[in-house]
Design brief:
mainly alpha, 4 helices, 88 residues
Length: 88
């Protein structure tokens, strides 16, 4: 019975940690150690303009693992929603 709850909790926790921006920005001191979220934010340039193709390619690398994880856990999440909707 707790499988849908654990699947939802896992998905939300992974998304929160994967998209974390401030803590990795504070903790890392070299460009090689930065996370993808920080790296994408650093791709925006004020002087020469933003190269949107590179930014969108980097964003794909951030979104794709979370999307794959959601697709793997989707069955359990929908099962939990359906179980909560039944009266009786």
């Amino acid at each position: 019975m707790s499988r849908p709850i654990l699947a939802t909790l896992l998905l939300l926790t992974v998304v929160q940690r994967w998209n974390d921006y401030l803590w990795p920005l504070i903790i890392t001191n070299t460009a090689e150690m930065r996370t993808l979220s920080v790296g994408i934010a650093l791709l925006f340039s004020r002087e020469s303009g933003t190269v949107w193709g590179v930014v969108m390619a980097g964003t794909l690398f951030v979104v794709l693992p979370v999307l794959v994880l959601f697709l793997l856990l989707q069955r359990h999440i929908v099962e939990g929603i359906a179980a909560g909707a039944v009266k009786g």
